[in-house]
Design goal:
Helix content: 25-40%
Number of helices: 13
Radius of gyration: 23 Å
Number of strands: 19
Largest sheet: 6 strands, parallel
Strand order of the largest sheet: 2-1-3-4-5-6
Distance between the termini: 36 Å
Shape: globular
Bound molecules: 5'-deoxyadenosine, iron/sulfur cluster
Length: about 500
């Protein structure tokens, strides 16, 4: 659930809704046009409040990755400016699902939720149901929604998240369901309101889309071509975030290593990182995700010399078999990947390496799978996300023959998971006894009087401490490893 926020603070460059003339035609330029429609929707909110004696509530349910989580913060920011109040469950006046479609089970979960909200809407017919995000970029999904889910009010995709107010207003004033899907986008609309989920850390989009076309992946089709934001826009946003209390930023992109290549003034990802590092108030920098084929020596060097870039690199492997990697269109082989991982570990010995692995890709044999296990044993990932291959309509892999039977893929998945967990447990204890800095992210729900912190290498540590430590970076002695996390004690500062 994404919090909408009770009041949203007007950030730098935002437009004051009270000063917008609603008697004229809407502006054509952005973001002015969206502020106009926010003001229009706010009139509706006021009328709702007069009629019902309360403000309307909204619930945003987010599926999928960090990019979607960040998009939901933008949706929440817009709804807060309009005047909606956050609701943590789906019994709300507006329910919005920000969907994911990277694997089919994500789609199935959304259809499941729609069945549930439909029953709520039968009891409360004025309820509004909206769907947005990656799944909406698929034509088959849109067809299915139009045919069998007629109670849905609002549908938009990944390229027009920024248009929420305009589309909502169209629904409120027109009565008919609104479908607005853009096939491709070259536009990046800046300076719209955002409600952050955490006061002390934030994701920052540095680029959108992906150009890699890995053969199993639907992302390039639903998120479009790669577009980088200009460094000045990114640095400005980060400065504003730090003015608002953020100490940790996570730079987000499907393939951050190709950042900046298509800008009119090209810049490397490493150079961007160096500029972010210069911002005094930024204490920690993370990024996600790196494609191994584009990971430069300049980046490794920048990380090694940095005081602020966290000792964590997510480096998706996908498969350890060179043959399968070719079929996946990953543009590296097993040896190149192993050499890269070794180079990184040698230059940055305290780095934590994590990965994504798919099992059951079409044509994967037991020998191919053994190659994957071999890479896992050799790289010794601190942790890994493992996925069963999911056939995505329209991707080249969906048309490949020799799809792996479900039971075979499941058996490989189970074996891979147990190896990954065993290595992860062994590597988690490697820092026991050391003092490391942790960003305190919250109070510990399991143990009274404890707080939970995140180490630079992304491992969690629980230690006794007061709630007002939340948002601070403090030194913690790691006393004991408990498998995937530590128990610690705060040190004198
Ligand atoms: N099936 C299974 N896993 C997939 N991923 C992407 N597409 C698929 C698919 N069709 C995984 C990849 C990627 C992660 C975000 O999701 O491992 O790195
Ligand atoms: Fe998908 Fe490959 Fe792009 Fe990642 S790099 S989003 S796996 S196509």
């Amino acid at each position: 659930m994404t919090k909408i926020g009770e009041k949203s603070k007007a950030m730098y460059n935002e437009i004051d809704l009270d000063r917008i003339d609603l008697n004229v035609e809407p502006p054509t330029e952005e973001p002015a046009r969206q502020y106009y429609f926010m003001a229009k929707c706010r009139e509706w909110v006021r009328a709702f409040e007069q009629k019902n004696g309360r403000r309307p509530t909204a619930s945003i349910q987010t599926f999928g990755c960090q990019m979607n989580a960040r998009d939901s913060e933008k949706l929440a920011g817009i709804l807060a400016r309009i005047g909606f109040i956050s609701q943590d469950h789906e019994e709300a006046d507006l329910v919005l699902y920000n969907t994911c479609t990277v694997r089919d089970n994500a789609n199935q979960r959304v259809y499941g939720r729609l069945g549930y909200v439909h029953s709520l809407k039968k009891k409360n017919p004025s309820m509004l149901i909206g769907l947005c995000g990656c799944m909406m970029q698929e034509e088959t999904v849109i067809r299915k929604l139009k045919e069998s889910y007629r109670f849905v009010d609002l549908v938009f995709g990944t390229h027009n998240i920024y248009k929420l107010a305009e589309l909502l207003y169209a629904r409120l004033s027109g009565g008919a369901p609104v479908f607005d899907i853009e096939k491709e986008s070259t536009r990046i609309v800046e300076t719209l309101p955002v409600t952050r989920q955490y006061p002390y850390k934030s994701g920052v989009n540095i680029m959108y889309g992906c150009n890699n076309f890995c053969s199993y992946c639907i992302v390039p089709y639903v998120r479009g071509r790669e577009r980088s934001r200009r460094p000045e826009e990114i640095l400005d946003e980060i400065r504003r975030l730090t003015d608002d209390g953020v100490v940790e930023v996570m730079l987000l992109g499907q393939n951050v290593n190709s950042y900046g290549k298509t800008l009119t003034e090209p810049i490397s990802f490493a150079a961007l990182l160096q500029q972010v590092e210069q911002i005094e108030a930024v204490k920690r920098i993370r990024f996600m995700t790196s494609h191994p084929k584009d990971l430069s020596d300049e980046l490794i060097e920048t990380m090694a010399c940095s005081q602020k870039i966290c000792r964590h690199l997510h480096l998706p492997l996908q498969s350890g078999s060179s043959r399968i990697l070719t079929c996946m269109n990953r543009c590296y082989d097993k040896e190149q990947y192993l050499a890269l991982a070794e180079k990184i570990r040698r230059r940055i010995p305290d780095i934590s390496l994590t990965t994504d692995i798919i099992v059951g890709f079409p044509g994967e044999t037991e020998e191919d799978f053994q190659e994957t296990l071999d890479v896992v044993r050799r790289v010794r990932y601190e942790s890994a996300f493992t996925f069963l291959y999911s056939k995505r309509t329209g991707t080249p892999a969906a048309a490949m023959d020799r799809q792996v039977p479900k039971e075979v893929a499941q058996d490989r998945f189970d074996r891979l998971l147990s190896l990954v967990q065993q290595i992860s447990r062994e590597s988690c204890c490697r820092d026991t006894g050391r003092v490391m800095e942790a960003l305190v992210e919250g109070t510990d729900s399991q143990q009274e009087g404890f707080v939970t912190g995140r180490l630079g290498n992304n491992i969690m540590v629980h230690f006794p401490g007061p709630a007002d430590l939340v948002g601070r970076i403090v030194p913690v002695r790691l006393l004991e490893s408990r498998g995937f996390y530590y128990i610690g004690r705060m040190e004198e500062q």
